[in-house]
Amino acid sequence: MRKRNQKESLHSKRRTFIKTTFLCSGAAILTGFPLVSYFIAPALKKATGKWVDFGAVEKLTPGSIEMLTYEFMVKDGWMVLPQRGFVWAKINKDQNIKVFSSTCTHLACNVIWQEESNQFICPCHSGRFDSNGKPVAGPPTKPLAMLKHKIEQDNLLVYLTF
Ligand code: FES
Description:
With 162 residues, the chain is of the alpha+beta class. Helix content is 27%, strand content 38%. The mean pLDDT is 88.
């Protein structure tokens, strides 16, 4: 009789253990999936981009670094929102063009070209980049991103991601 009670008790414990494990697994899946998708999905979302026309190349001054501003509308779910910003175009004397992102590689503030110091200056933490976008002072360690660009029908087009 005693042995039988022990056996039943063992079965009962096993059943409780299996039930608890099953319920915990279900709860973990039900709460974990939304949490994981909330944090992971944005990282997996493909960046979209488009070619933006900045107008005639002949308007750019050789030997200068010029701010090129843009504004266009982007559809995000149900909303259509304006996308505004600027990039920096470096026009060499031989008409060779480099286009830099205005986003500082430290914490993403916008850098401004300062003619007097011949550097891009970041107002947030005093980061500085030379005229080729290389970091020369302050916290940034990576160069300014160079943007893909092309010339079509004498206009400068830059590929912007958002
Ligand atoms: S964001 Fe530019 S230096 Fe920090």
